[in-house]
């Protein structure tokens, strides 16, 4: 079976065509970062303060939109890069398996559940929080539900990757500074809770056509003499994927400590 987490798209354009929701979310992440942190546009900075998670403002002023808006905001470039990278790795397979509507529902719902959990832990907290981490941990929750209850949707190799990455992510949640632990945990729980509903009628990722086959002008399918080399490369990438992601997480964690 094909790997859920190895990106084999030939271009950014092809990726965007195959995974429009993931692409749109990543674009939103970087556009907001550019306007708020890099360009420092006054209206964008005001938008940031209007939108970040703030439990005290929800409790006192009934600013309930703050359960949603923090999902799209990030603290700095590294925060934006890390969450966008995680979304590009773990989002595409689910977008194809669930469909656009269910995917965006699951993504937003898990993020909201993460923010609700953060709120109920301390309803008068003055500490602001932002980031898509709750939504991304919600995606982990959906994959974990597949591993435990829907083995027809995930093979053993991908299940091992899910378990390993989840353990690494959980460890990093508790050792990295300035992490919204409640948001991660409740986002993950939200993903699991949503899974029995959103995984109805889901089809294994390998059953979807990922690339259009190249054709001759006369309409016949073109033979690709390098396809076996590509297949061997994909297997090698699959073996190294866990360590690549672990190294990236470790580097980012060390970076944030300085």
Total domain count: 1
Helix- and strand-based class? mainly alpha
Average pLDDT level: 84
Strand content: under 5%
List segments where confidence is low: pLDDT < 50 over at least 5 consecutive residues.
210-233, 254-258
Percent of residues in helices comes to 55-70%
| Oligomer category | single chain
| Spatial extent as radius of gyration | 19 Å
Largest sheet: none
Termini separation: 42 Å
Order of helices and strands: HHHHHHHHHH
Q: Predict the CATH topology.
A: Rhomboid-like fold
The name of the CATH architecture is: Up-down Bundle
- Looking at CATH, the homologous superfamily is Rhomboid-like
Main location: membrane
InterPro entries: Peptidase_S54_rhomboid_dom, Rhomboid-like_sf, Rhomboid_protease_S54
Membrane topology: Multi-pass membrane protein
GO biological process, one term: proteolysis
Compose a concise summary of this entry:
This protein is mostly helical. It has ten helices and no strands.
How would you characterize the overall build of this protein?
With 258 residues, this protein is an all-alpha fold. It has a single domain (12-256), classed as Rhomboid-like (Rhomboid-like fold), CATH 1.20.1540.10. It is 67% helix and 0% strand. The protein has 10 helices and no strands. The chain has helices spanning 12-18, 20-38, 42-51, 55-61, 77-98, 100-121, 133-149, 156-175, 181-198, 227-256. α5 crosses α6 (100-121) and α7 crosses α9. It is globular. 34% of the residues are buried. The model is unreliable at 210-233 and 254-258 (pLDDT under 50). GO terms for molecular function: serine-type endopeptidase activity. Keywords: Hydrolase, Membrane, Protease, Transmembrane, Transmembrane helix.
């Amino acid at each position: 079976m094909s790997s859920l987490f190895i990106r084999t798209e030939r271009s950014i354009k092809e990726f965007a065509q195959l995974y429009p929701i993931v692409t749109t979310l990543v674009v939103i992440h970087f556009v907001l970062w550019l306007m708020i942190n890099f360009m420092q546009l006054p209206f964008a900075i005001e938008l940031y303060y209007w939108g970040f998670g703030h439990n005290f403002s929800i409790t006192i002023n009934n600013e309930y939109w703050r359960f949603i808006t923090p999902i799209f905001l990030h603290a700095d470039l590294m925060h934006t890069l890390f969450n966008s990278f995680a979304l590009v790795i773990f989002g595409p397979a689910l977008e194809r398996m669930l469909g656009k509507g269910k995917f965006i529902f699951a993504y937003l719902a898990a993020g909201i559940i993460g923010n609700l959990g953060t709120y109920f832990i301390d309803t008068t907290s003055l500490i602001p929080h932002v980031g898509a981490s709750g939504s991304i941990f919600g995606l982990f929750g959906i994959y974990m539900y597949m591993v435990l209850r829907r083995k027809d949707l995930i093979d053993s190799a991908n299940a091992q990757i899910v378990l390993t990455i989840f353990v690494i992510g959980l460890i990093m949640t508790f050792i990295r500074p300035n992490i919204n632990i409640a948001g991660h945990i409740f986002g993950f729980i939200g993903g699991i809770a949503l899974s029995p509903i959103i995984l109805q009628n889901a089809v294994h990722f390998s059953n979807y056509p990922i690339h259009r086959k190249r054709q001759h002008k006369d309409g016949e399918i073109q033979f690709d003499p390098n396809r076996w080399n590509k297949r061997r490369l994909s297997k090698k990438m699959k073996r190294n994927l866990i360590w690549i992601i672990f190294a990236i997480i470790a580097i980012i964690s060390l970076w944030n400590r300085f």
